[in-house]
Design brief:
heterotetramer, A: mainly alpha, 8 helices, B: 333 residues, alpha/beta, Hypothetical Protein Tm841, Chain: A,domain 3, seven-stranded mixed sheet, six-stranded mixed sheet, 15 strands, binds adenosine-5'-diphosphate, binds magnesium ion
């Protein structure tokens, strides 16, 4: 089964529900290490995407580009900007196509990861959303079934979050807290875990 | 920490509506994002543009400093959130009058990524951009990692110097160089006694006991160097001056401007009490104070606390500091 | 409501030490009580003197408004306490340059008694004094007892007008008359959300629940007209405008200056949100806003809250309002 | 036994103790109806008088004038100014004399009351310190013994305070509270009760 704009719309609907639910949790996680706005960023971004979802074009590239713009328009937070950067990268890759195979997902995630790395100038292993994406790209490599791919990505995001939890933060506002962040979940990774779970239909 | 507001989602847009209605002689909205403020009367054609951007909640920073002798345009984000890259691109376009644009803003991840992205966007418009990132807060990183420091109240001095250099007709590289020199000559440190509330978050950004203070805290409530019992004004001012002078020693013959800045709720009465110590310390060092700024120049809404900024001058910087400027919050004549 | 201070007993003296050290171009101490501030450069000889006085804790009121086009001298009491009659007499002497002195101050028992006593004292010096007592707070008494009203932020307009008239060379009776006209044309109302702490008392002046506000409260925490749940910015502004316009109706063709004033902790962001409503209401009434003042003009240290003042202009008042003035907190060019 | 500067010094010492003790009580009473500074006013005024007490001249007029000035210098509050006004009036009456008879006390209090009334432009019966003084003047009229006079004044001050408690305040900051002040003690009367008690040696 290949992915099309309908699948994108359905995912957007699930993501909106998930981000509204995680609003407080993400704000709180970000508040402990940063400025406490990550829930706001995600909920606003997803609401904006939700608004344009019914009118999204069948061209997946154009559709993802519109999603990226919705994100940049509602928020200039680090995470919002990185998300938009990732989406634009995927949009460019899918331009002119109305479907996408599950087998392409790993490559798309990896491309997003690289673009976001270039934008944010952070290293892998720095305990950021990049580590989530890296794990997701690796876990989905070679998979061809959509459900299997989504599940593998969700599992990988959670596993990466727990693994990196034990390292100190080195990037963004959390960096200042240094060693104190050992044992704390990176809010951006927590958000990506929630995103991947919602895409996989886990709630 | 109680706020007077309507729907928190509208805080910034309503603020900007009142802001531009109140001061049409200084500010106008540019473009249709509703989040870009430009000078009411554009600078001279051929003048280098100075653009900034950052989160709301810091008035007069950032938007308030748009005006003659200061900034040309500003992109405004939600409270404590970077504006988007598109808004920044719009601000860059508003600031451009053919001689290129200096992007002058605080060292925060979101702002950097977005201003970089905005630079990519305006490349199509053939606008040449340079960047100076402001990182004056000594409490946020050691001297050997000074490039990781946060930008706080010292940004105001950088705006002033860059604005004056641009108004004086210098070209983009010269304006950028002097702005960088100003940025390098600023050191700030802050202390917070009570938090503020981001409207959309609905609760205070951090909590702190009734008898506690945090030395070195950032303007969004980022962590400082220690938290402990509230000390006397003189002890607080003394420690702040120690930290600043350790980082940038000053001695006989040095000329320096100082800013004693309220983060919001702390009243000018208390700033003056603190200024006694600042002046005594600089007098003792043999340094001369030039144009002290005491008031609310860079705030965090209703946060209680203060910051000190030292700005070490050379002849060029002093000339630009004293050059005329005007906006709704600050003017030099 | 946390304060940065040393020994509370020294709050005002230390404040004044920092204040005069920071702005020697505007202010100097006069006499030896340490509580009288006069212009750094005296007004023209033969100019009518304008003197005020009152408690500390309201910066820029009272001391801050000493300057060209404004006041000549000011006697400063402890926080929220009248200065003494002797200090006021000293201030009157500092303000006098042979043409007599207008005593221009707020309607508070202590200040009245002391300024009266001060008048007795300077009679020996052959200084002719007149008095205009400022009573602009509509919440503090009904219109038929308007002379019992408290003086609040509207005092700033009266200082401006009297200062401009004196600088323009008018004689004592003319200056007094126009100051009285300005006083009569001002209406203010305030709302408080949180209290402030008088340093020597050590605890907040009043208490108020976390979700409550008080409409009509005075700048020392004096009671208002109701206390209840915190309302939206638009509802608060609407009620304040109702109260002001009930007391002083404005209609088509009227020209009015408005002040949207923070009592201290309330940030400018929120003042601008409120100003939208003020402007909409006056636009709807057909009145024209002249020189709106949005900021901190008359405060209660770190109190959270705002006041609105309407100042209805005629041609003479508008001319004096727009005349140049300068001090560390406000200038008109 | 006639009153001299020694008696004045002893009274000043007792008053200082009393006002330090009543500091919080007077601030609180004033805070309920005014601006909460009456304790500050009284303590500072009495401290200033205490400082100059050892050097007070034997001339009772000069001595009281110095006390009045000490009060005006430390505070410009309504009460401080009224106290100074009253003291100046008594000082004028006693100028050039080193002793004063108990029989003169009633007249001195009445003179102070009148001068303070002229200064503050308030009516008798308005629930202010004037009512305390009025009662004290009346209760001491015709008395010749110092202790008896002091006791009568102290009793009268307390009785007036309780009587007026049942009326609404009409003067000063308390006026705004109107009917709500019925049942509340006027802080200025409370201060005068404490002053009279301290002078009478009641602590
Ligand atoms: N330079 C960066 N590179 C990669 N990820 C980053 C970077 N900066 C921040 N992040 C991610 O974004 C998260 C914080 O996002 P957000 O709350 O939007 O930041 P801010 O409020 O500081 O702009 C972090 O937890 C981290 O995962
Ligand atoms: N005009 C007046 N005439 C007589 N007594 C007055 C007058 N005004 C105030 N008082 C007395 O002074 C007391 C308040 O004194 P104080 O706290 O010093 O006033 P404030 O702080 O308002 O200047 C009142 O309780 C009352 O007894
Ligand atoms: Mg954040
Ligand atoms: Mg943020
Ligand atoms: Mg008082
Ligand atoms: Mg009082």
């Amino acid at each position: 089964m290949s992915l099309d704009v309908e699948a994108l719309r359905a995912a957007a609907a699930r993501l909106l529900v998930a981000m509204e639910r995680e609003f407080d949790a993400l704000n709180t996680a970000d508040g402990a290490l940063g400025d406490g706005d990550l829930g706001v960023t995600m909920a606003r971004g997803m609401r904006a995407i939700g608004e344009l979802a019914p009118a999204l074009p069948a061209d997946l590239g154009l559709a993802l580009m519109q999603c990226a713009q919705a994100f940049t328009k509602t928020s200039g937070s680090s995470y919002g900007t990185l998300m938009a950067t990732g989406l634009i990268t995927m949009a460019k890759a899918l331009k002119g196509r109305t479907t996408c195979e599950a087998s392409e997902v790993s490559g798309l995630i990896a491309a997003a990861r690289d673009a976001m790395q270039a934008r944010g100038k952070a290293e892998l292993g720095g305990k950021t959303v990049l580590d989530s994406l890296d794990a997701m790209a690796k876990a989905t490599a070679g998979l061809t079934d959509a459900a299997e791919t989504a599940n593998a990505a969700a599992d990988a995001a959670r596993a990466a979050q727990e693994e990196l939890r034990l390292k100190p933060a080195t990037i963004g506002r959390a960096r200042i807290f240094g060693e104190k962040t050992i044992g704390m979940v990176d809010p951006g990774m927590q958000a990506m875990t929630a995103i991947a779970a919602a895409i996989a239909g886990r709630g | 920490m109680k706020k007077i507001l309507n729907n928190p989602v509208d805080y910034v847009d309503e603020m900007l509506a009142g802001f531009t209605a109140a001061h049409p002689e200084f500010y106008r909205l540019h473009g249709d994002s509703g989040r870009v403020v430009a000078r009411a009367t554009a600078g001279k054609a051929g003048k280098v543009g100075i653009v900034t951007g950052g989160g709301s909640g810091h008035l007069p920073v950032f938007t308030g400093y748009v005006g003659p002798g200061l900034l040309d345009a500003c992109a405004i984000g939600d409270v404590f959130a970077s504006p988007s890259a598109e808004q920044m691109a719009d601000a860059i376009r508003a600031a451009d009058s053919g001689a290129g644009v200096l992007r002058l803003y605080g060292n925060y991840g979101g702002d950097i990524m977005n201003f970089d992205m905005a630079g990519d966007l305006v490349e199509f418009d053939d606008i040449r951009c340079t960047t100076v990132v402001l990182a004056d807060d000594v409490a946020s990183a050691k001297p050997d990692e000074a490039d990781k420091r946060r930008g706080v109240a010292g940004m105001v001095y950088a705006f002033k110097i860059a604005g004056a250099a641009a108004d004086a007709g210098h070209d983009l590289d010269a304006v950028t160089a002097v702005a960088q020199k100003a940025a390098d000559a600023c050191r700030s440190v802050g202390v917070a006694l009570s938090p503020c509330t981001v409207p959309q978050a609905g609760k205070p950004t951090f909590t702190i006991a009734d008898d506690e203070m945090e030395m070195g805290m950032g303007i969004h409530g980022e962590p400082g160097v220690w938290r402990g019992k509230l000390r006397s004004a003189d002890a607080i001012a003394g420690e702040m001056m120690d930290r600043l002078l350790d980082d940038m020693p000053l001695g006989a013959g040095d000329r320096v401007s100082v800013m004693v800045n309220s983060l919001g709720a702390t009243p000018p009465e208390e700033l003056y009490i603190l200024y006694r110590v600042v002046k005594a310390r600089l007098d003792a060092a043999g340094a001369t104070i030039v144009m002290p700024l005491i008031g609310r120049y860079a705030t965090s809404m209703e946060m209680t606390g203060v910051s000190f900024t030292l700005f070490k001058l050379d002849e060029q910087l002093e000339t630009f500091l004293k050059a005329p400027c005007d906006c709704a919050f600050w003017s030099v004549k």
